[in-house]
Amino acid sequence: MKKTLIKPSARIHSEFMVNQEEIFIFPVPNSIYKFLEQVWSSFVNKMVALRLSDEQPMFHYSMFEVIQNTDTKVVASSTFFKLREIADKKGDKSVEEFNSKAKPTPIGDELNITTKILQKAIIDFTAGHRPEIEFLNIRDEKMHENMESLRTPTMNYAVGLPLFVKDNPIGVLWGIRKDPLNHLQRREVIRQLSSLFEVIEFVVAKELDGNQDAYMARKNIEKSDSNSMSRYLFYTKIPHQQEPVTSIIFRSHSYKKNYRLDASFIVPTTNGYSVSLKRFIPEKQNDTNIVLLMIPGFFCRRSVMDKLAREMCLSYGYKVFSMDMRGRSRQTLPPHGIRDGWTVDDYVQDDFPAVLKWIKEHHPDDRLVVVGHSMGGMIPRFYTSSYNIIRRIKRDATLPDPEKYIEGIVSITSPNYITLKSNFMGFDTLKKGVNMIPPNFLLDFLINFTTTSVHTAFTTIDLNKFFKFLLNMHSSLRQFSFTIGTKVVNI
Q1: In degrees, to the nearest 5, what angle opens at C-alpha 479 toward C-alphas 475 and 484?
Q2: Which CATH superfamily is domain 20-209 in?
Q3: Residue ranges per domain, the chain?
Q4: Confidence band (pLDDT; 50, 70, 90) for 235?
Q5: Nearest CA to 384 among 402, 408, 409?
Q6: Whole-angstrom Cα distance, residue 177 to residue 174?
Q7: CA distance 420 to 488
Q8: What pLDDT, on a 0 to 100 scale, did the predictor assign at position 9?
């Protein structure tokens, strides 16, 4: 291996300073290691979910190499979902096989690249600097045979992010690509990975000092905004909700503005189910008194609306909510297990009006505009057009009147349209909003659902079984979305 592969830290210039090779790497404390075992899958999942500014994936593969006593070892890896395998219920065998081939590499071995990265990072971190992110050409460099055995022909360029928790180095998080990164892309990678470093360090340390809730840690890491730097993280309380709300103050690199993200508000609906809300609040709000509620498509989670939500929040100063219907996460399911399934009627007649009430209660002076994509645009329109019928069926005089609660509805790529009552700032952005919903993959077996009539789809999809399948596919909840075409936006 070339001696220049990992260059010494350029931040510290002193003959008095110890040499990089002299740094001793301690094992990860047992209490930290046990918790890491439950959350390190989220590290690699987040890495392969990162996107460059052109929406291309930043990395094709990711590995987390942990300090394991006197060795380093790859203990978690991830790549893009192999959707056809998942659709066939075969699982992601390639990831399982990859992890099973990983062998520990001695920390003291001169070919252990991770050791050299960590030694350099310890010097920087001790001096009060964030560790440098390393860019490597692993196609041409000699590596330890244990790592070389894991490399495939498409693993040519690697980026190493050394991680620390509670001042302890824990390992290196690797992002791997087929093609090299240009100068501008490297700058973008450094910016996003610097943010991810802060998120992982803070979230894991916070949970270690608190409830040690691995689920919450994974969720906060996977759903973090890598284009923003988190400044403060708090767990806040809200009346009638047992679980705390994660409240994070961010500084957006893209918009050069501050905003607050609150997740999640849990709104009870019927039969033990709930709806989950996420809220974006800009530091400087506009004076329209309009709140936006964004509802994703039928098989999507609210995260697909994040980019559009941040645009409306930071460019136009709106408070923005995004919504997960029942069945999208653990928090929206009955605490004592699922006894009965649910239908789209439950979305329209129970979940949506519960959210209307909740938002009106917490923002009584604001007017609501609902922004829905696909089925998310149909739900408020179904409710609005069928309000009197639903009220008779439910025999509920308190059911929110859409004429009083809803200022307007923006429906993105949904059949038909409904006219918005009044124009407002950012309306043109919402017309283009489909371009801000990240493209993703469409499972083959979902095509049958989307090509049938609405009536048929309602009566044939067992939502209970389907969403249980989605939730059980992986220990960490992953985002699903349709591939969005260039259809005309319906407003």
Answers
A1: 160
A2: GAF domain (3.30.450.40)
A3: 20-209, 227-472
A4: confident
A5: 402
A6: 10
A7: 16
A8: 62
Maximum C-alpha span of the chain: 83
pLDDT tens-digit map of 316-326: 999 999 998 88
358, 276, 291: which is closest to 323 by C-alpha?
276
Write down the pLDDT at residue 79: 84
Q: Is the pLDDT of residue 23 over 80?
A: yes
Mean pLDDT of 106-133: 93
User: Any idea which of 102-116, 276-290, 432-446 has the lowest mean pLDDT?
Assistant: 432-446
CA distance 489 to 190: 35
Is 157:176 a contact under the CB 8 Å cutoff?
yes
d(CA 8, CA 158): 18
User: Among 88-92, 118-122, 182-186, 399-403, which stretch is predicted with the lowest mean pLDDT?
Assistant: 88-92
Q: Does domain 227-472 have CATH number 3.10.310?
A: no
Distance (Å, whole) CA 308 – CA 381: 21
Q: Write the secondary structure of the chain as one string of H (helix), E (strand) and C (coil).
A: CCCCCCCCCCCCCCCCCCCHHHCCCCCCCHHHHHHHHHHHHHHHHHHHHCECCCCCECCCEEEEEEEECCEEEEEEEEECCCHHHHHCCCCCHHHHHHHHHCCCEECCCCCCHHHHHHHHHHHHHHCCCCCCCEEEECCCCCCCHHHHCCCCCCCCEEEEEEEEECCEEEEEEEEEECCCCCHHHHHHHHHHHHHHHHHHHHHHHHHHHCCCCHHHHHHHHHCCCCCEEEEEEEEECCCCCCCCEEEEEEEECCCCCEEEEEEEEEEECCCCCEEEEEEEEECCCCCCCEEEEEECCCCCCHHHHHHHHHHHHHHHCCEEEEEECCCCCHHHCCCCCCCCCCCHHHHHHHHHHHHHHHHHHHCCCCEEEEEEECHHHHHHHHHHHCHHHHHHHHCCCCCCCHHHHEEEEEEECCCCCCCCCCCCCCHHHHHCHHHHCCCCCCCHHHHHHHHCCHHHHHHHCCHHHHHHHHHHCCCCCCCCCCCCCCCCCCC
Percent of the chain with pLDDT over 70: 75
**Whether pTM exceeds 0.85:** no
| Model confidence pLDDT, tens digit, residues 265-276 | 999 998 888 999
Retrieve residue 401's tokens. 């009147």
Sign of the CA dihedral running 392, 398, 399, 404: positive
